[in-house]
C-alpha cells in the first residue's frame, strides 16, 4: 500500500484550481517548522511566539489571511496548546 503524500494529492488534482490547497500546505509546513522541537539549529518557540510570527507573515503576505483567521479560532488554538 502506497502512502499518499501532500504532493501526490496535488498531482492528482491537476487541472483543478488548487490555490487554496497549495496555500494551506504552505501554511502547515511553516507552522510545523516553527513548532517543531526536534530541530537542533533553532530554539523552541512558544505557541504565542509562533502566532506572532505567523501574524507578521500575514501582514507581509507570506501566508493567506483567511487560513490564519481559521487557525486563530480559539478552540483550535486551545487544542494545539495541549499538544505542543
Question: How would you portray this structure in words?
Answer:
With about 80 residues, this protein is mainly α. The protein contains 5 helices and no strands. The chain has helices at about 5-10, 20-35, 45-60, 65-70, 75-84. The N and C termini lie far apart (about 30 Å). About 5% of the residues are buried.
Characterize this entry briefly:
By secondary structure, the chain is mostly helical. The protein has helices spanning 6-12, 19-35, 47-59, 65-71, 74-83. It has one domain.
Proportion of β residues? Answer: under 5%
Question: SSE order, as H and E?
Answer: HHHHH
Helix content: 55-70%
What is the count of β-strands? 0
Average pLDDT reading: 76
Q: Return the structural class.
A: mainly alpha
Low-confidence region ranges: none
Distance from first to last alpha carbon: 31 Å
Biggest β-sheet, characterized?
none
Domain module tally: 1
Radius of gyration: 15 Å
Shape: globular
Individual helix count: 5
